[in-house]
Amino acid sequence: MSSKQILVVDDDSSLRSVMKMQLEEAGYEVTLAADGAEAYELIRETRPRLVISDLKMPTSGLELMRRIAAEDIQPTLIIVTAFGTVETAVEAMKLGAYDYVTKPLDFEELVLVVHRAMERQNLLEEVRNLRSVLDQRYGFEGIVGRAKSLLRVLDQASRVAQRDTTVLIQGETGTGKELMARAIHQNSPRKNGPFVTINCGSIPKELVEAELFGYTRGAFTGAHTSRPGKIELADGGTLFLDEVGELPLDAQVKLLRVLQQGEIAKIGATEVQKVDVRVVAATHRNLQAMIEDGAFREDLYYRLAVVPLLLPPLRERREDIPELVKHLFSKAKERHGIADVELSSTVMQHLTRYRWPGNVRELENVLERMLVLSSSNLVTEADLPEEIRRVPPDSSTFWIELPEEGVSLEAIERELILRALEQAKGNQTKAAKYLDISRRTLIYRMEKYGLGQE
């Protein structure tokens, strides 16, 4: 299959010919079909990357899309129609169309739409290749979705996986940072080597260096034998430093040496040891703010953040929640051997509105809890945790008209804080909860804007 292959479907022979000429001038390879039936057979035979189809013709464009979807054929689709109503556009989008253009055609616009569609297809194929590898071994549950922000970071991950460079994965708790690290390792030249994980926040400070670098016999009281550290165990593979922001400063200095010189010194050893390790680090903390506070070394930060990847929180990709719910609920049913329980539509509405501070991990836990506690074959609104059930219908929609001359972000923030305090009748704890921030953060911002000092 050519990377620039397009199938044009239209019952107007003259329009087909003109589209073919215009697209070939733009550098694409074009095949023609006169109706949906002929197009369907060509799609099954040639697997084009992009299909441009008229909406109104024998075996219509919508019918062609339905048949393609049923066969799990995956070209990107653009609909051409003289009936550019909202209804037909929505119907086409529901069936998987990327975009639509209206007759009479503006060929410059058509070529631009095709360029964008091809870029999207490239991105989807790269992500699909990455996922296909990971799904066989890890499931990749935490990184399901099609939001642009997610596709962008997955594309970046698929590119960097092939290069033996250091990666820093940033994102809130529960966004899938370890899954991303495993994805990078599994899709890298080191995939046959070890993948070693160390959670920097779960080790007592006095044991961090021993865990990372290992020790020799007699190095300290209780060291009856020599022991390799996590870095040595990762030799030839990938070391995943989860919550790297929790590392003590003295351990940060020694980690910097590993990154700069590729060598370690065990506790009690008189000589250094060479290691071949790729480091992937992750954190939910703001390392640059920690640098300003003197809690994290700036030189180590820049060594780790050669390629920074930012996983978006679930609340910023709400369009992915239905797909995630379906995927995770299915996995939970399979895991517990429960096949005949379904979610009601009202449950899905609540799940989509909720902010998910714990992200995908919280969503997965909530779905599993509802499944195992359900007393019937239908999970309803009554089965939802109270904090999700009480979210009002319009809480996820907050709209501000932006004037052309610009706005003051500080003025907007000050006004929001004032309104939250008014609504909470001056109760700072309630106002902070309403704004989804800590009380300490609220007090800091009140002091910043001179609120409550009158």
From TrEMBL:
The modification 4-aspartylphosphate is found at D54. The keyword ATP-binding applies. Residues 5-118 form the Response regulatory domain. GO terms for molecular function: ATP binding; sequence-specific DNA binding. CDD domains: AAA. It comes from the Bacteria. InterPro entries: AAA+_ATPase, AAA_lid_NorR, CheY-like_superfamily, Homeodomain-like_sf, HTH_Fis, P-loop_NTPase, Sig_transdc_resp-reg_receiver, Sigma_54_int. PROSITE patterns: RESPONSE_REGULATORY, SIGMA54_INTERACT_1, SIGMA54_INTERACT_2, SIGMA54_INTERACT_3, SIGMA54_INTERACT_4. SUPFAM superfamilies: CheY-like, Homeodomain-like, P-loop containing nucleoside triphosphate hydrolases. It holds the Pfam family AAA_lid_14. GO terms for biological process: phosphorelay signal transduction system; regulation of DNA-templated transcription. The keyword Zinc-finger does not apply. Coiled coil: none annotated. Residues 143-372 form the Sigma-54 factor interaction domain. Keywords: ATP-binding, DNA-binding, Nucleotide-binding, Phosphoprotein, Transcription, Transcription regulation, Two-component regulatory system. PANTHER family: C4-DICARBOXYLATE TRANSPORT TRANSCRIPTIONAL REGULATORY PROTEIN DCTD, TRANSCRIPTIONAL REGULATORY PROTEIN. This is DNA-binding NtrC family response regulator. The lineage of its organism: Bacteria, Pseudomonadati, Acidobacteriota, Terriglobia, Terriglobales.
